[in-house]
Amino acid sequence: MRRLSKLTLILALAGAMPAGAQVADLRSTTQFRVCADPANAPMSVRDGSGFENRLAQAFGEWLGLPVTYTWFPSGMGFIAKTLREGKCDVVMGYAQGDELVQNTNHYYTSVYGIVTRKDSDLAGIDHLSDPALKDHPIGVVAGTPPATVMAQAGLAKDMRGVDLFVDRRVEDPVGELIAGVKDGTLHAAVVWGPLAGPRVKDDPDLQFTPLLKETAGPKMFYRITMGVRLPEQEWKRELNSLIRRHQDEINAILRDAGVPLVDDYGKELVQ
């Protein structure tokens, strides 16, 4: 019986090998093929100006491969129509823990924060439970973690929400929030750091304050990875090795773009 069981196991593994080989064959060995949204500024942009485009270019150089793109609007169906169909091999900027992909090791951690005018009475606010926020119109992306924290803090009536899942080729909800702060129709906006930081980095009127002091509700910081197909362990390990060896260069690209970087526990800014 033992011999039969061992033989059965060997045959089962052998039978699984062709399927595994087919999965591995999806990955290109001649191109670094990236799945991306063509209009998700400041992250990915069709003209290559986003910071995720710059990161993709760096990974392509480290791999010795040219970078090519499969463009598809982010949201429902993005992974199914790109990565899973074998049209590309990696998704840049994917939140750790999503079950639709296999995550690499994270290559940065960022945080939600508050965009205000530098001359505003709210410029010193650094946590959402601050009573000074009450009775001020505050922009937030609906369905994001800070929207929950704001509601818990009694700010529901002050929230001015925009949609999370939109076609960014025709709508720019975060851009609208930041423009509202700049022209005064909003007194603050609570936005994901990688979306807000680069937009206000060189703006003389606006500032971004990371939410590093929140203790209640959903966390405000998240680790960001690259996503690959679920069975592709070797590919994931290759990317993990590049992340480990080039972390300082990755950080430099992100800091230059204005992305706020925090430690893995969301406690302090990484310089």
Q: Element order, helices and strands?
A: HEEEHEHEEEEHEHEHEEHH
CATH class of the largest domain: Alpha Beta
- What structural class should be given to the helix and strand makeup? alpha/beta
Can you summarize the main beta sheet? 10 strands, mixed
Can you count the beta strands? 12
Q: How many distinct helices?
A: 8
Amount of beta strand: 15-25%
Unreliable residue runs: 1-21
Write the CATH fold name of the largest domain: D-Maltodextrin-Binding Protein, domain 2
Shape: elongated
Q: Write the CATH architecture name of the largest domain.
A: 3-Layer(aba) Sandwich
> What oligomeric assembly is this protein in?
single chain
> What is the average per-residue confidence, as pLDDT, rounded to a whole number?
89
What does the radius of gyration come to?
Answer: 21 Å
Q: Roughly how many Å apart are the termini? A: 62 Å
Count of the domains: 2
Helix content: 25-40%
CATH superfamily of the largest domain: Periplasmic binding protein-like II
